[in-house]
Amino acid sequence: MLSGRIALVSLVVFTLVSVPARAATIRIVVEKLEFSPAAITAKVGDTIEWVNKDALAHTATARNGDFDVTLPPSKTVSSVLKKAGTVDYYCRFHPNMKATLTIAP
Amino acid sequence: MFKPIGTTVVVLCLTSGVAFSQGAKLTDPQIAHIAYTAGEIDIKAAKQALDKASSKEVKEFAQGMVRDHEAVNKQALDLVKKLKVTPEDNDTSRALSKQASEKLGELGKLKGAAFDKAYVANEVAYHKTVNGALETQLIPSASNAELKGLLQTGLKLFQGHEQHAEHVAADLK
Predict the structure, then answer these.
(1) pLDDT confidence of A103, banded at 50, 70, 90?
(2) A5 confidence band (pLDDT: 50, 70, 90)
(3) Does the beta-carbon distance from B160 to A55 stay under 8 Å?
(4) CA distance, residue A84 to nearest chain B CA (Å)
(5) What domains are defined for chain B?
(6) What is the pTM of this model?
(7) What's A31's domain CATH number?
């Protein structure tokens, strides 16, 4: 049916137009006092899933103040990236833990 | 698997104020006991500091010691339970505890900035001693892979504590 096809096409077009580029979920694992991967690229709007496999409490704290996420022991925490930039972050409790997140606009 | 090595004679090296024996082979139940005791000692010292310290930086350091050492000791308890190992008291643990209670008494007499300095100086020295023992004795002696792994992660964590204590000590000068 032609009208049906038009309806389907317009639905597809509508969907393509109305849904912005899908935000991704990026996993960063914390294990044995290390962020892994130590360097990763993401986009504004993406969600970082912080998986803390240590029995220790950690934080993911941006040196420029853009984010400060508390990572309770053996828990997974999610945070959404709001600002573009190359951000060096570390754990406030264990400052030897350092990594970099490159956030594209 | 756990391989009990049997009773070993632990020679205490008390002259340098270090409770760790030199060259003695320790069994896993003894190693677990020593590691747990060493953690408990630092928690007690930190709790005294939370009570007595005047510097904000020293209090924050002490909070970190309680947080990390309690977490590691809980992990150690979970591991020995899982492995069905009973930690075994030994001369090294006893010497550590004796020295620690003497230090608690000594620090207990101090106040204000004098306490802060002495507590942090002892934290530097204590972590240095324990890390040295972990590196040269406890880790190489551990037979069980999981116990060895826990001690290795512990060493990495406690090396961070040692650096942190050194940093705080420098700030107090």
Answers:
(1) very high
(2) low
(3) no
(4) 31
(5) 28-172 (1.20.1260.10)
(6) 0.83
(7) 2.60.40.420
What is the per-residue pLDDT across B101-127, written as a single tens digit (0 to 9) for each?
A: 999 999 999 999 999 999 999 999 999
Low-confidence ranges of chain B (pLDDT < 70): 1-19, 21-24
Which pLDDT does position B173 carry in this prediction? 87
Q: Which of B129, B127, B134 is nearest to B158 (CA)?
A: B127
In the sheet that A58-62 helps form, which strands lie side by side, from edge to edge? A39-43, A98-104, A85-90, A58-62, A68-71
Domain that holds residue A39: 23-104
In angstroms, what separates the C-alpha of B95 from chain A's closest C-alpha? 28
Q: How far apart are CA B81 and CA B21, in angstroms?
A: 26
Q: Which of B64, B67, B157 sits opposite A33 (nearest CB)?
A: B157
Nearest to B45 by CA among B65, B68, B75: B65
Express each pLDDT in A16-50 by its tens digit. 454 556 789 999 999 999 999 999 999 999 999 99
Q: How far apart are CA A26 and CA B91, in angstroms?
A: 50
d(CA B122, CA B126): 6
Number of domains in chain A: 1
Per the listing, tokens 């970099």 go with A100
Instruction: Name the residue among A55, A73, A96 with its Cβ closest to that of B160.
Output: A96
Tell me which amino acid residue A39 is. A
Asked if the structure places residue A12 within a domain, the reply is no
Asked, for residue A4, whether it belongs to a domain, the answer is: no
